[in-house]
Amino acid sequence: MLVQDDIGKKPLLLYLAAILACVAVTLGAAWAYTATQGNRFLESGYSVWNAKHAMLRNCDLGEVAVFGDSRADSAVIPARFSRVATNLGFAGGTPIENYFFVKSLLACETRPRMLVLSFNPGAFEIVQPWLWDNAVRYGVLGWNEISQVRREAALLNDPSYAVVKPNIGIDGLFRDLAYSIRFPAIYFNSLVESRLALRAESNHEKFEQVIRARGYPSYGNGTRDAAVVEAADDTGFAPLPLQKRYFEMTVAMLDRAGIETYFLITPYSENGGHAQNRRYMDDYLALLRGVGAQYRHFHLMQDHVPLWPDAMFVDGQHLNEHGADVLSRQLNRCIEDGTVQAATRAGCELTWVDQAFVASNVKDRTRATQ
Amino acid sequence: MLFNSYVFIALFLPLALAGFFASAKFGRRYAGAWLVAASLIFYSWWNPAFLPLLLASILMNYAMSELVARTGARPALQSALLAAAVGINLSALFYFKYYFEVVLFLANRFGLDAHADPVLLPLGISFFTFTQIGYLIDVKQGVAKDRGFLNYVLFVTFFPHLIAGPILHHREMMPQFAEKSTYRFSLANFTIGMTVFVLGLFKKTVLADPLGGAVTAGFAFPETLSFFDAWWVAIKYSLQLYFDFSGYSDMAIGLAFMFNVRFPLNFNSPFKSQNIIEYWQRWHMTLTRYLNLYLYNPMALAVVRWRSEHGYGTKRSDQKTAAGFLSMTALPTMLTMGLIGLWHGAGLQFLFFGLLHGFYLTFNHAMRTFRGNAKQAASGPAAAIKRVSNVAATYIAVVVGLVLFRSPSLDKALSMFEGMSGLRGFASSVSPTEIAWVLVLAVLIWGCPNVQQIMGKCAPALGKVEATVARIPLLWQANLRWACTVGILLTVSLMAMGGTSEFMYFQF
After folding, report:
1. Domains of chain A
2. Which of A265, A273, B264, B387 has CB 3.0 to 4.6 Å from B462, enough for a Cys bridge?
């Protein structure tokens, strides 16, 4: 009764074979499409990454290159610099990804004369799922790179790498394999959200816009609600051995290449919770100072965390265009008048002192866009 | 481990199947032992800490069932042993599932000075506890014939039902594990089982999961929802739950069939029901059956006995009196449904969910008892309109009940009802794409046959589906058209398993 063999063996084998063939064909087609046509269906972040990666691949970086996380990404407008500059801050970026980007940069024949690094303390404390969901999924990093990270994590006995579950929901070696072979499942939702291919135009525009802005993607002109005053959190700064290791490897690599490297602490909103945690920020600064003491070409630009008005931020972390405009002009002035060299002694503190300057600039730009 | 995970599909299932049929060549015991071992690995994959609890539960229940069986000559002792065993089971269930919530409730509502730490709920504890309590009761009543230990362990642990049912009955399962043919690989059963599994996987990963984001957000902040948005969220949840749970049940049925085992049917197009009584005969059918067998019927019988002993009538005509109806129908119904509600969770919202359905059922029974079955129009537009309006009314009643079922608290449920009643306005933020997708799902639910009907005469599950099956145009056959359909559904499902939320970090 239970064993139903009355259908016959041959039709069943043919049926199973046809299923396998169908899976092979459809999965193969999906694989080919997702691996080669990302600009048609992936989210706008892909275009930003793609544009920045294109500049890096083409060694089109100018004299000043900024590397770092999303706070750097939102904060630096290369067009405000007197020299040709590039913003290669990546949303979700941590020292791990940036190590590989800097490594690519060092392979260029023409290198920037000055490099600005910028990571918020949180970037040292976690291995982000975005390492896979951005860097590997967008095809910027591959199996070799993440295998190296896995080995380093094992050497350091740091379990933080192995346990991360990106969007696909698996961890460990299977996760690394699924992402590095770019198994189409990691793109499923973008395919659905884009109705398979409806993002080509917007992605192309974004790509061009980021290239034109030399890597600055603009986080818009929204402002953080100043009424929201976050309580200071009291967590301690706990950098991961793995992130520290990659940060030090990056600095050491730049030092060996003789490239002057400046660490920029981008401003925090004055009512954000993290910035008010003094001990946390002091420990963060201590880590940076410790690295600075070891390498001749590495300089910490500030000796404190700058707090800026809420109106300069889209949220507690990222500067809006107004904020980025002010910061970029100040940074450029520091570079041009040499105070960036003097670092903590003289002048490039990026403190919020110049209200009138900002107000007039905002007004000018508003007038210009009208 | 979940059925809709890569490790299950790519690694666990092929190994479990291959090991089972390979070890069966050395004897049934080896195959059974392999299946038990595989099931225990499956169970402990997420958290091995729960494995000792499952093993202790099996050993305790089996030992107690043997004691119960051997004390048949001493009924008082036998009853005491049964009560003790059921008590231990329910105590464990209470501790893991309800204790923390009850203490919290007492502390918050009545200011009692009590403290409890939250306890992690062991996977499937309600399922394996209820399954075993049923077995104990049947052993006492002398209806459990097969009492072999290996078959018992297989019946409790067999991985396709271990985490989320269906709730099995030993009478339909243990004979299958004793059957020789179960241990012989059947290409037909494998093929049919795999097809059912893929259809279930598609329902779960492609139809149900993408609805989750909006549903979660809606039920988390119901105070922001207007009339249309609140109803939209509630309807989406009903679709998500149906495709999720029935998809999971289909996967379980398909998996079991690959091992030559038939599970009972658990869903039979419940949203096509024309009244709530029919709905409960089609929704989570094995739970309804279990509660009828071990809760409703004994309670109803006790009431009948009590009435008989106290000189009250127990005939059908006595049920038509108010007192007879209330005691013999309404009371056991309300109690059973209240307990069904609590079986699903510890919050007050679950109790009210159960009681609301108890009320629905009582009302439905009252209509039948006092009005009799209304004359059915045989065919024609009038009959069709009546059928459609009955189905719609039943579905709306179910959706209202599901608001209680899904809400994180009673307050949130009341807030959702406030939105659904129009007290927060009628503005809608539903997009045309969402409407189109829900319409597709509606066509699948109300316009298409269900998986069991599609599989037709292959009957991979125990239980009957509608007799109209033969007329449906989508009957499964081992042909190229179906192979391509299954192949495409499998590919899309495998891709959908990669996550259902897009990375939103950039979308400022």
Report:
1. 48-224+239-369 (3.40.50.1110)
2. B264
